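Recap for those who missed Tuesday's class. We walked through two folding examples back to back. For each one, the amino acid string is listed first and its predicted structure tokens come directly after. Nothing is annotated here on purpose, so try labeling regions yourself before you check the end of the notes.
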Amino acid sequence: MTFNSTLNLIQTYEAGKPIELVVREFGIDPKEIIKLASNENPLGASPKAIESIVKNATNAHLYPDDSMFALKEGLSKHYQVNPKEIIIGAGSDQIIEFCIHAKANENSKVLMAKTTFAMYEIYSKMVGATIIKAQSQFHNLEEFLELYQTHKPSIIFLCVPNNPLGECLGKKEIFDFLGKIDSETLVIIDGAYQEYAKAKDTSKAIDPKELIQSFPNAIYLGTFSKAYGLGGMRVGYGIAKEDIIQALLKVRPPFNITTPSLAAAIEALKDQEHIHQTTQNNLEQMKLYEDYANSKGISYIPSYGNFITYLFENPLNSTLIADYLLKKGMIIRNLASYGLNAIRITIGTKSQNQRFFTLFDEFLGQ
């Protein structure tokens, strides 16, 4: 059977390994497995959100409110934007897909960082668009501007903070850059990890209201999968001027969020104390990873997300490290598929992180 030829250009996205796979392959008790691979919240979701999931599970036979009125109202109040300036997706990556299908085609070019979220490239290639990648390892907006002026892309992606590396552009440099971009270019500001970035450094905080009022060609993406701890519920959102949202709604399938997912996101948004606890744990435990790396002479990228990237030189090898940890029941993310001799570790609880340090010491002692 033949398929769309554009599939030949696409490399399958490699998600973080699930706990179930480690149980099957190595026979490890699932209670002994620690997953620090997918940037999930180690504290879990708000108890209020969990309660709402259980309550709304009895309505599983009913379609959700397709207008998503209550969640949009909550986000509207949280960000001080109009509900008509909000779209909800099954994770923010679905909204990335909406943006690509609404704006790009085989004649389009899409500009992104050299190392960034893989789905930007995958969704772009699905419609036949040409990928333009910066050569700098981190977001270099001077280089981005040169590439923009040369290629005139239809879409520009800025991941703030950047996944999987963790570096983060500041608000001022982003706004200065946006001021030089034509109004016909859609600029996607991916703020999946913004809750962590602004807790660490307010100069990195992007206010969606200020963003779209200043730059009507920009869209801000947020998610409930990271700081809100609802990765399994798959809820994300986009905030943009109404004309952009109306275009995206034309490619949104009906009932793209489940009833329990909607209920969980509504309650999670109300519990900002849980977000505070989450970001504080992240800041405290991140320091342990930095101190550990410094003590071992390991290079790392200062991170504004809920993960840290360790960079290795020979004889240390990221694949050998990841495989060793996996066999011990510790799942982290090997970045070899990005062409990097590096691993990305989600910041966990204190006990989870101590287990990582113990296992890494064992590996180094071999």
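Example two. Treat it independently of the first, because the proteins are unrelated.
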Amino acid sequence: MTNPTDNPFDDRGAGPDAGPAEAAAAEGVDDAAFDDAVDADAAAQAEADGAEAGAVDDEATRLRSELDERTEDLQRVSAEFANYRRRVDRDRRLDRELAKASIAGELLNLADDLDRAEQHGDLSAEGPLKAFADKFRNTLDTLKVTAFGAEGEEFDPAIHEAVQDTSNGDEKVIGSVLRKGYRLDERVIRTAMVVIADPA
């Protein structure tokens, strides 16, 4: 008859309901070795997790660096385009001003003829020539072409071309105007041809 106190699994290791410690004891593994094995597994897992986190950080750093480079490239291209657009606008404006000045310059000979006709009294009476002169001068005003150079004005060598100097002192004024000067806006398109004299 079997003794109920006898362990039927004494010769076969731990029973089916044994825990990890009992299983480890049954297989001849002591608790310290088992704990070391668990700690080693945990350390290996932590190292693997750390390596993975480091790889993620490295990738994030690389992507951030590439983003910074692309941002700098975009800012540089945007600045270059803005400068290019300003140059194009400036060149277009200059071309328009030069074309306008060229056209106005061609009209100045006609303005001189009208001035001479006025000096001879040909524009005093109402007639076709007077009507034409008025329309022509209105056109110059519309183009912002203005005349300068009148007797008594202070002589300015930057805008007055002196063909004769009859002055004796240091102060010089325009004694007579041989040909008017003209400006287009603020740009001088023709200097005035004058005779210098002393102030009256």
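Answers for example two:
The mean pLDDT is 81.
The two ends are 158 Å apart (CA to CA).
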